Description:
mainly alpha
Amino acid sequence: MRNGSAVSTARRDLGFVARFAVASLATWRVTHLLAEEDGPADLVVRARAALGEGNAGALMDCFYCLSVWVAAPLSVTVTRRRAELPVVWLGLSAGACLLERLTEPSETAV
């Protein structure tokens, strides 16, 4: 029976990895939409403008800050264990930040 248990654990771990990867991509996508894009029919850019220069407006202009809050609800889809939630939450934000760095246009010296 031990072998069956090992297979079950491996499948569960693979499921976690897949959920984490998809949630990281989703965190990046939603954060990028909110912080960097105009959105369909300019809805996002108008929402950012309506928030103004206050704390909420500043949050919408900072990809890294915003990714922390976008990752929070997605962390619940990755793990159900309360003890893991803070680490998964920050990990999803970190994954989104790494993706942002990888997809940023590189600055060329003139």
